[in-house]
Amino acid sequence: MSKNKSLLFAIGAILVLGGIFSYSALDRKAPQKDDFSVSWMRTWATTGQIMTVLANTNIASLHGSNATFPNFLFGPEMNEAARSGQVDATNTGIVPTTNLLAVDDDWVVVARLIYFNVSLVVPQNSGIKNIADLSGKSVGVPFGGGSHPYILQRLGEDGIKVGDGKGEVSLVNLKPPEQALALARGEVDAVATWEPQTAISLDKAEGKVIDEDIHVGFITVRKSLAEKYPNKVVALLKAYIDANLFVAQNPNMVDAWFVKKSQFDPVLLSRIKVIEPNIGADAIKDVNILISDKDFARSQKVADIMFENNLTPKRVDIKGRTDMSYLERAIKDLSSEGTRKGEIVILE
Prior knowledge:
Layout: H1 2-29, E1 38-41, H2 47-56, H3 59-62, E2 71-72, H4 75-83, E3 89-93, H5 94-103, E4 107-123, E5 138-141, H6 148-157, E6 170-173, H7 176-185, E7 190-194, H8 197-204, E8 207-222, H9 223-228, H10 230-249, H11 251-262, H12 266-269, H13 293-308, H14 325-337
Parallel strand pairs: 1-2, 1-3, 5-6, 5-7
Antiparallel strand pairs: 3-8, 4-7, 4-8
């Protein structure tokens, strides 16, 4: 008995201990996902300033978030990373946001990011004075980017068709950094773009803005992850709010960070048209990233235009795909905690 039972006992003990060890190892890793990966576009002002603050300071960790902040060139690239599981949250304008929501049900909007202009720029000496004058011309636009449905909407309102026929407008697919040079070289007659590419186009092509509209940017999070780790989403949003305040109170420092990351010409930085009200915040209570009914209406109009022009496979209900409960918790926490301004450390 002795040998067989002892052997069985020893094997059982090893299995039990092994199970306990395995459980402990998993338990250490599984309870909270500490490595939220949050994507952002390095060439996009004013988002770039907010995100460089999160990347270059300890604000996120001060609020309990150990998120990382990988940067990308363009919205569609960020969506690819989101769908492939490389990132857990994104910072994009309404167009890439809608594209992501249309093809992946596991994403939810949790807060407003910024307000920004989309603009139509032509050379200063161009005879194009309004949308109607685009008939028979070419417009450089990043397909799938923020200004794509904008130009389609404007052309549709004037009854102008897209195509290569007589009186139609040819849309040329250009990435944002390619637009200003193409306009300066005369490769396109106009560009539909956003900041800082608007400022660059105005400079390189000696351009002028003949039309513009306001779009909304959003913070989106993987829904399954948010439901599993709600406290991490709340912590991240608290960090966003505090980062907005840091931007407002340290504009020169933050602009320098953005210039370094984006390789943007610092001389042109002052020419960027900024319409985000949070840059004027004096206190944490002044920062507002809630999504208003007007924001929803404006953004839904863009989403509908995208569907009507076959840019998305299905119609997206922006408000229906939004959950601001995480943000409401973040605001409630900050109302009692306040900013962590005195504890902020520059990591750069």
